[in-house]
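We modelled the chain as a single entity of 473 amino acids. Its sequence is:
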Amino acid sequence: MMERMVYNTVWDKINAYLVFLIPVLIIGVLLNIIKFPIIAILIFLSFIFLCNNHEKSVVCALVFCKMIGTFGPALGIPLSGTVVAFLMIIAFMRKDLLKLFCKKTTKPIVFILSIFFIFMVYFLLTGETRYSGTKFNTMIISLFVYTVAYLILVTFDDIRMERMTVPFLLFALMQLGYVESLSGHGPSGLLDFSFFRNACMDLMRKNMTVLSYHNMGIAAFIGVAFMMSQRKKINNYFDIVFLFSAFWLIVLSGARQTIFGFVFLIFVWLVFRTERFKLTTVILASIVIVGIYLCLQMLEVPILQETSVRGAHLGSDLNRNYDYPLMIISYHFLDGIGFGNYHNPYTHEIYPHNIILEILCEMGFVGMIFIGMVVFAFVRSHHFLLRNKLPNGGICLLLWIPYLIRSMISGDLGENISLFISMFLLFHYRGIVVSRKRLEQLMKLRRAPKSVYWKKTNEEVPASNNEIIEVNK
């Protein structure tokens, strides 16, 4: 039986109603009834009225930066998305901006800057070539954007993830409407899962400014990660409608890695949502993931092709050909071909769709060793905790998965520095500082019978996901 939603404020109630409206908006956009400027207005309204200042700053960094930077110039308004987004963040965070940089965030920032320094050295040694300059500029922008966004997430406990998920889904839907308006025609039906991808590819061939079809799926994917991070179970219609809407948008994007990532995210959520590790859950979820993967490889069946404009070719090229990047590695295994110098003349791709292969191609095994040393040092430090949670209780691992999936299947080094930023900030454990006498009392209490243990509050007993305790001697 479904539980009733509990609304703390009238704005939370409006937020829930807006989620229930999203499937209607998707149908309206697919039928070419609702235009993308209407979706843009809804994004700004949900942003202004439904989020607090900390949530607005995160939305500015992760949504508005890309949204303004892409749609502004496309509509004839020459705006820098990064500059506008950061001005808005400064306005919202003016009282709390200095709180982001303190002792608790010093170590992860050092790790982030170490990774950036390695990339910068390779860029300087390579020299600015056709693609290296653009890639390095993208990396600088990503460095600032994602660092600020995740510093906010790991610092404040008044952030509710579900209030930020609506702008993510609406942003994904806005991209669908935008591409539909540029292409001049819509999908053949509500289940035309190849329209958006094919339309984006056609527009890129015509050198028209348009977002990559990956970005639509990733926006919805991150929205799912945000919401599920604060859920222990799916217990109301809000969650069901949200997941249905997000998955619909992800499938419409045609981004295969995002479809697989969605399933993988649910698998990880089933494992980490409680403190207990259930082997049966892992086995069942693994079977489901394998089944979904096999289904993705069979998407060329005629019944699915009949619902598309030109036939969905998702199955034929699901497995990418890595012969060319492996050939580059074999010839330049030590130092690589240079930062941003990867280019496949046969497919005209500028990255090999895998961050490990890209690092090996452009920076060689020497660069991979340097990066591996930084990651290994972080994992080996006593500040790393895989089961870490945000101050608001969100599961950090779920927030990291979208960047992991994206980096392993698509995206280049410039964008995927977000993988390292999110990892270092999300998994950096902030220990509880206590005296040794208080530590002994806590350990005795943890060994007490459960009837006594559960009578104590969370302030008296550390949660089971926060086992590491820094001690003042």
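As a brief sanity check on the tokenised model: The chain has a mean pLDDT of 78. The longest helix spans residues 355-380.
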